[in-house]
């Protein structure tokens, strides 16, 4: 599997570590334990397009949000996890 980092270019997936489901919205720190249990331990196992967090540990060391098809491993989008970096890339593209 090849991942195109917006800063380093196309790289092998071995340069990255998987950081989990990027679609999860975690509860407030003051939320009851039951809400945290559900957010941390209860997961769907989707088939098809899915948002994931990946850390580019062997490159720029930034966190990325990747949309990957869990059935085919096809990657359809890669963006920095930080919104200010996403804005920077959009400005540079203009």
Please give a structural write-up.
By secondary structure, this protein is of the alpha+beta class. It has one domain (2-93): Folate-binding superfamily (Folate-binding fold, 2-Layer Sandwich). 21% of the residues lie in helices and 35% in strands. It has two helices and six strands. Strands 3-4-5-6 form a four-stranded antiparallel sheet. A two-stranded antiparallel ribbon has the order 1-2. A hairpin with a 5-residue loop joins strand 5 and strand 6 (75-80). The model has no long low-confidence stretch (mean pLDDT 90).
Layout: helices, strands, pairs:
Layout lengths: L1 E4 L3 E4 L4 E5 L11 H9 L7 E7 L7 E7 L5 E6 L2 H11 L1
The CATH topology corresponds to Folate-binding fold
Structural class: alpha+beta
CA distance, first residue to last residue: 29 Å
- The coarse overall form would be globular
Q: Roughly what percent helix?
A: 10-25%
Helix count equals 2
What portion of residues belong to β-strands?
35-45%
User: Any idea how many domains?
Assistant: 1
CATH homologous superfamily placement: Folate-binding superfamily
In the CATH scheme, the class would be Alpha Beta
User: Which spans of ≥5 residues are poorly predicted at pLDDT below 50?
Assistant: none
- Please summarize the sheet with the most strands: 4 strands, antiparallel
The CATH architecture: 2-Layer Sandwich
Number of strands: 6
Mean pLDDT: 90
